[in-house]
Amino acid sequence: MKAKYFIAVATLLVWSAVSAADGVQWDGLSDGQKQVLSIYSEGWEQLEPQRQKQLAVGADRWTRMSGPQRKDAQNRFSSWRNLTDTQRNKIRQRYGEFREMSPTDQRRIKDNFRRFQEMSPERRQKLRERYRDLTPEQRKRARDRMTDRRPRPTGGRD
Questions:
Q1: What's the predicted TM-score (pTM) here?
Q2: What is the pLDDT of residue 147?
Q3: Nearest CA to 40 among 21, 59, 65?
Q4: Which residue has the higher pLDDT, 8 or 81?
Q5: Which candidate, 79, 34, 64, 70, places its Cα nearest to that of 52?
Q6: CA-CA distances (angstroms) from residue 24 to 27, 29, 61, 129?
Q7: Which of 4-8, 113-117, 140-144 has the lowest mean pLDDT?
Q8: What's the mean pLDDT in 141-149?
Q9: Which of 34, 39, 56, 114: CA 20 to 30 A from 134?
């Protein structure tokens, strides 16, 4: 009797581990996640396990967002959909490069971006124009300087 009980429990444990490795069960989603993912309810079991996990995480994040955060996310998604495949691939490549950087370099880039966002629209536009006017070699040196914070000589423009 104990052997049968042990086999049954072991089988349930193995089955639940295999089930978890297969993806996210629809019944395992919260009510909020189910509401967000309702368009997938009929075909949920046919989705790839990795896709199920991505959708479940995204739906969870969505349910925790405020109204303005959701609006921002919708705008970003709309912008993403309007990009060409080439533009999306370039963004993915740059993001991959960013993820490979040291935490110090990532922080520096984030800080630079934050400072750029805090500038007035006029100042940002001037910076863009100034960058566009640079030669390819000058652009490369500017990018190199942004990632290399060693002291450099001051003086005229490159």
A1: 0.55
A2: 65
A3: 59
A4: 81
A5: 34
A6: 8, 8, 16, 49
A7: 4-8
A8: 73
A9: 114
What does the block give as tokens for 53? Answer: 């996990």
Q: Is the pLDDT of residue 145 over 60?
A: yes
Phi-psi region of 17 (alpha: psi -120 to 50; beta: other; left: phi over 0): alpha
The closest alpha carbon to 149, from 105, 117, 110, belongs to 105
CA atoms 14, 15, 16, 17: torsion sign: positive
Confidence band for 148, pLDDT divided at 50, 70 and 90: low
Question: Which residue bears the tokens 């942004």?
Answer: 146
Residue 58 forms part of a structural domain:
yes
- Number of domains composing the chain: 1
The whole-angstrom separation of Cα 20 and Cα 12 is 12
Supply the pLDDT for residue 22: 75
Is the model's pLDDT at 36 over the cut of 80? yes
Q: Are 134 and 142 in contact (CB under 8 A)?
A: yes
Amino acid at 41: S
In a domain, 24, yes or no: yes
Domain presence at residue 90: no
Q: Is residue 34 part of a domain?
A: yes
Q: Which domain holds residue 35?
A: 1-82
